[in-house]
Amino acid sequence: MATGRRRAVGGGRPRGGGSAAASGSMGYISASVNLMGAHLGMRRMNSEQSEAIKRVIESSDVVDPDRAMRMMDNVNASDSDSSDNNEEMEDYGPLHEAAGTGRMDTCKYLVEELGFDINADANNDSGMTPLACAVARGKAIAVRYLLDKGANLNKQDSVGFSPLHYATKKGNDGLVRLLLSKGASPDISSCEGTPLHVAVSDGNYGIVQSLLQHDADPNRVFSDLGTPMTAAVLCADVICVAGKISVSAALKCMKLLHKAGAGLNCTTPDTPLVIATSKDLTECVQYLLEVGADANIPSNYNGTTPIEIAADSGRRELVEILFPYTKPIQRVSNWSVDGIITHAKSKHLKDKGKQCDKASKVKQSDKDSKVKRKEDASARKSSSEEKVIQDKKAELKSLGAKAVEEKDYAGASKFYSEAVKVDPKDATLYSNRSLCHLRIGEAHDALVDADACIRLRPDWPKGYCRKGAALTVLKDHKEACDAYMAAVKLDPSNQELHEAFWEAVAAMKAELGAGQSGSSSDSD
Where is this region: Disordered (predicted)? Predict the structure, then answer.
């Protein structure tokens, strides 16, 4: 039997060669050794599997028999907790599993004896490398070993994450510093932005500092979060909720970013000051103004400046803070804190007055039409039929409204459906039925009715609001953001619409983060 050691190539499959082994064909031996490589150190084997692999080891010149025998015995002696943990990674591949579970004897054997590729993609289409698996599960010894063996520390997986992204996402300061010291790039973009975006979004100012010390770009723009400075404000909240960070954590990150040269006025998706004002983050507003943020850049969505946003929402304290930094606005005749607030109130009254005037004109027009129909003998019958239709519709709407009050949404939906048959051009019927569909779990039907409402009344914000709610339930958060923004443009003074929009933005970000976490642990 030959004494030379054969090496493996490609994605970790051993390569045959030389004369056939005395106990059987080389194809049998190669396949069995590959099976052994998949099992060694990672999961228990039954007695039949154990004996079969022992026979292969004894008859094969592909592996070191004594070492392989010892490793196999260790496998069968491993505790059940480790076995359960390994099952999470069983679809990744042998080396990925060994690195991700920190089994260094197995990891070294697969690399040094069988020649597994340390940069191979996982078998489950995640695109993760063994290094990424080790980093994602905090296996520092495995990380150091793979780096020493020349692992590619900047290779990205299917969602754009590099090992540095995973270390940052897990909040592992030590691995972040290790990867950076080995030359990991801090500016690789992924589905959640650069590692600096990820660190800021999680409020991990320690990692933010490490990344900046290694020249991470504080002004890199990511489509959903803008710059890291914008991300800090977007992810901050005065109330501690899932997917949000505290205002104090956000401020620490913002100060580190500013010290590193971060810009303050990026308008993607809006300036940090506009966002902080919209979210009533008083401390963030104060800090941004102190370090030079421009208070005169308006929102991308409705063209209002931060001070107008604060006044429209009735937040006098913010108006007072913003006033010294804001240039006089021509449409505000009395440029003072009281004058700005009074202007905002008068604007609301004018908007309501316009709506009342419009309703009055419509009502008068209806009266004129009825008079004309009465004067025309041929139209009397039509007028009578119209009245019957309107009465029937009014009755059905009343019954639907009563059912909604009693939380009988299924019953209410039936009444509105009957009303739609009577008058298919009444947008309010589709809006009401959309609400009912949503409350009984029929989100797709709710979306269909919301679209119908928008087609009939494209200038009515309610239809877009209904659409946003349906899309949120359907997890289509980007489209939900667009729908809520359309509603905001039609009714910019409606604070509930502003809040719904920012909640949709937060949900979109949370979904991206959850999707990335799922790609690291779920089995196909």
Answer: 1-23, 75-97, 352-386
For residue 396, what are the domain limits?
Answer: 388-515
What values do phi and psi take at 239, rounded to 5?
Answer: -110, 135
Domain count, the chain: 3
Same domain, 443 and 348: no
State which amino acid sits at residue 408.
D
Point out the domain boundary residue: 152, 179, 203. 152
Cβ–Cβ under 8 Å, residues 415 and 432: no
Q: Look at residue 1 and tell me if it is in a domain.
A: yes
Up-side HSE of residue 387: CA atoms within 13 Å toward CB? 11
CATH number of the domain within which 482 lies = 1.25.40.10
Find all residues with CB under 8 Å of 131, minimum gap 6, and list them.
Answer: 99, 118, 119, 143, 146, 147, 151, 152, 153, 155, 163
As a residue count, the chain comes to: 524
Predicted confidence (pLDDT) per residue in 406-448, tens digit? 999 999 999 999 999 989 999 999 999 999 999 999 999 999 9
CB 116 within 8 A of CB 94: yes
Is the same domain home to 361 and 432?
no
pTM above 0.70, yes or no: no
